[in-house]
Fold this protein.
Amino acid sequence: MHLNSIGETINHEILEQTEWEFESDYSEPGFNDENFLGNQGPNSPAWVNKYANYELLDSDDSSEGDTANSLHLGWKHRLVVIVTASIVLWLLGKYLSFLIGDFQYVEHIDISGFYNDGNIQELGCENMRQTGHISAQRSIPLHDNITQIASALASHPMVHLNEKKVSVPGKVNPNRWTQFAGAGVWLPEYNVYLVVSRVVYTRPGVSWPTISFLRGQLFDEDWNHLEKHTIEWYGTKMYFPMVFEIPAVWWEEGGFFGPEDPRIILDEGVQGAEPLIVFNMISNGAGSPRAMWIHKPFSNFTTILTIRNEERRPEEKNWAPFFHNKPSAGKRTGTNEYLHFVYSLRPLQVLSCMIRTGECDWVFRQEVPDALAEWHGDTRGEMRGGTNFVPIPIDGHLDIQTYIGLPRTHLNFCKAGATYRPEITVLSGFESKFHIAYASVATEFGHTLLDKDLLSNPCTKGNILIPSSIARWVYNSREDMMAVSFSIADENIHILRLYGVLSFIRSLPYYSRFLKLDNPHHDDASRNFRWSVVGNEVIACSVEAAANSSRADSILAEMGELSKALEQIRI
């Protein structure tokens, strides 16, 4: 479905109005609009007399021949004026469309994917194929003042140490700063979005990040940036925009320091809940491992996450956060003490971490017998964490919890670098058992995020499209809107508004099969097994589909390079 942009609508309305204004301006007393708009055509006496009289007012010669010439010139003059005005208004409409109307563009998006049918007897991607559709509105780019950020952080020791070697003291070079990976969350008590993004400083002479910081910005409901905005949380005032104070280890000549890949989540429905920022960062432990961390931005509390009874791995990242509440808990008055994470999608593994201490325990670790794991070829990659997962409402089934998120595939077919694309994914959980209910194929959401140039070059400049957060999901009898943040090419932040997601999810055959065929009160371990096996296949099919698409893109890219090389030889 393609809707006209607001700019085109404005252009049409102004054009119609302006044509009438040209007609009205030439009116004289007694030549009223009602008579003028009667059943009189352009050749009627009223028209002829009107413009003949108008031209004769400026004529020194009132002869019959001159009168005819004047009448002819009058029509030519009127046509020139109208055509000129039409062109001006058309250009103005296009300009307005570029400035504001472009964001009103809505595109119908066909979604293909794979649903979990619980049938381990007939594993196979085509047996689980499901198609549907949603709508997406043109994405909104979020902006910030990178020069202001650079000036504020110029005194940081790591920045100051490197800048004093090459720059004039006190002079800021914004070209060494970038901002991307923005994750947002709606704060209903303040009626604002809080967006946390990664700000990267790269010292002269290198191409990799030196140190990163986390920037906080507030936006209103329409995604207008709120400058110099203050919010108060239990007596503490915070002034936005700001850079969060997160202690980070660093040393001279090193790199990749500071917090990276921020995600943000709010324990919804709890009065006074503080948002939680999740990120990865190099720690000061033995070997300087990269670990996952939690930061509370209002109370300025930071803790490292540690999986108990395990040696810390050299690198941890891409954990997808969500709150998993016990169905029997009823209405809660206090905030959650635990935050859950999808640690990996294939195999599916889920962690539960105590927010206060950072201690984590395995809640679910999927085990699939080799005999029930289909071969999907060399996909050269995997599906990794992207956004947070948010609850999906299921009428009449309080004991079953399902969540929607947008992880992304990371594939290595293109010579220029890895390709990242998002997938819509549904996670199902009951107590401590989980399985994947649905995963779409990789999607770019039509033309609402990437422009024509980026879409045409998925192996080069258009290779990175990473979802960072589900900032808000509004669903009721009148509205079904999900706001998702994306990072494009590791250079900017865009907000995409999706419509009809809940209707799309509820149409999946999974719900009717799982909820009707299986009694939730049966033993959850045995009940979950077959759904877990098929869920593993769902992810495999999604990754395979993304791999097939990326493989085709890489072949086309290489053919294009070969064609250019042959063209150079001919020259």
